[in-house]
Amino acid sequence: MGILLVVLASLLLGSYPSIQEYVMTTGASPLGMVIVCNSVAGLSAFIVGIIKKENFKVNIKELKALALTGILGLFMTDYLLNVAYTMIPVGFTTMIHFFYPALVTMIMVVLFRENFTWKKLGAIVISIIGLALISGGDFSGKKIGIVIALMTAFTYAFYMIANDKTSARNVPLMVRSFYLNVFVVLTAIITNMVTKKAVLPVGAVNIGLSAMVGVMLCLAIVMLNAGISRLGAGKASFINMLEPITSLVVSTIVFKYTISLMAILGALLIIGSLILVAKDGDQQEVIGKYQEALE
């Protein structure tokens, strides 16, 4: 069930960027899209939470964890990705950003004493090669853009781990989604007070599409967090790599892009890494035994 939840979340997360991109071609800015879409996502979570009679009361420790997860994990990831897109190619940005599953795995091994297996090592290597192929091979752009893209890998790794290891995981899913989106929207509004760069979508079609993205985002966050609770941050991160494959397919259909054989091979390698992780159990394997011997 955990794998299915993350797969569904990945399909949603990989689909809605093309809708956002379409709306932004009409003049809306990335910051404006965050304000609208995350507001709808938060409102959707609130309504469903009320219907399910979930308790929206959280303690100070949980509120702090939710604030850090929302601001550093969600808002900073989206904001820095949008900045990186203006400096280096989108494919290159995506490749660097999705280094985060490998980063999550390494952090979980070092800080939380998770077992490091041959299957995890293989998944890391195969996924990185797959991402390099799916990126299109365009590694041009500003060096600062590479640094910013790499920062998104760390911020999203923080998001995944925070939902697994902090008190945020104790908050009911709809309540958690509500608070996370509230902190994202508040941070976006404060950012706009400084930058004055928020341009909201206008027109019934664009507003409707933005609202649809917000609902998709709400569902994705809830399912991803539920999947993390069942699988752990490491395994969920790798399965979430279906997101760039979905994004590639959807953007190809919507914008009539051409998929190269290299991109197809990259997608197959990424799927291979997901299979390795999905089959990776809790049993001790060779690397884990080496770790025990060294201790």
Task: Outline the structure in words.
- By secondary structure, the chain is mainly alpha-helical.
- It has one domain (2-294).
- 78% of the residues lie in helices and 0% in strands.
- The chain contains 13 helices and no strands.
- The chain has helices at residues 2-24, 30-51, 60-85, 90-97, 100-112, 118-134, 143-165, 173-195, 204-231, 233-239, 242-255, 261-278, 286-294.
- The chain is globular and about 45 Å long.
- It starts with a helix and ends with a helix.
- 50% of the residues are buried.
- Residues 282-295 have low confidence and may be disordered.
Question: How would you sum up this structure in a few lines?
Answer:
With 295 residues, the protein is mainly alpha-helical. It has helices at 2-24, 30-51, 60-85, 90-97, 100-112, 118-134, 143-165, 173-195, 204-231, 233-239, 242-255, 261-278, 286-294.
Residue-averaged pLDDT: 86
**How would the global form be characterised?**
globular
Helical run tally: 13
| Approximate strand percentage | under 5%
Helix/strand class: mainly alpha
Cα distance spanning the termini: 35 Å
Major sheet summary line: none
What's the count of strands?
Answer: 0
* Share of residues in helices: over 70%
Number of domains: 1
| SSE arrangement, N to C | HHHHHHHHHHHHH
Q: pLDDT under 50 segments (min length 5)?
A: 282-295
Radius of gyration (Å): 19 Å
